Amino acid sequence: MPLKASNLKVGDVHTARLVEDLKRTQIVQYAGASGDYNPLHTDEVFTTQVAGYPSVFAHGMLTMGMTGKMLTDYVGDARLTKYGVRFTSQVWPGDTLEATATVTEVAGGLAKFDVKTINQNGVEVLSGYAEARVDP
Q: How many CA atoms lie within 13 A of 70 on its CB side?
């Protein structure tokens, strides 16, 4: 059921758990689905010994996609009109992610949201905005 403007007010917060204990398998599956086989996401030896990171890490677009699903689950299918993010920290295997959408404006059949995704340590890994059509 789509979200209704009459049920929203500025400051309302919707929160959802995106993933608990992100697996390397999920990261590799995303590489296959997206066609992005950058070794930073798939090759532990390259990532640790050549690039100097502690481990492979998730694609930013994987985090964006999971956060986007939280938004569409909240506002309804085909309701998003804008969605943009900034990746603020890496997502590692084993991370648990939680996303929030905070209503910033409701007017003219549109709702605007600030969006944030954090890991299990409270570190922000994604920040952004969204806008969605809402029924009266």
A: 26
Under 8 Å between Cβ of 128 and 83: yes
CA angle centred on 130, ends 91 and 4, rounded to 5°: 125
Q: Specify the CATH number for the domain of residue 105.
A: 3.10.129.10
The residue type at 92: W
Segment 110-135 shows an average pLDDT of 97
Distances in whole angstroms, Cα of residue 107 to Cα of each of 59, 102, 131: 34, 15, 11
CB 132 within 8 A of CB 77: no
Q: Which domain holds residue 100?
A: 5-22+58-133
What are the backbone dihedrals phi and psi of residue 67, each rounded to the nearest 5 degrees, phi first?
-65, -40
Q: Cα–Cα distance between 68 and 122 in angstroms, integer?
A: 19
Give the pTM. Answer: 0.94
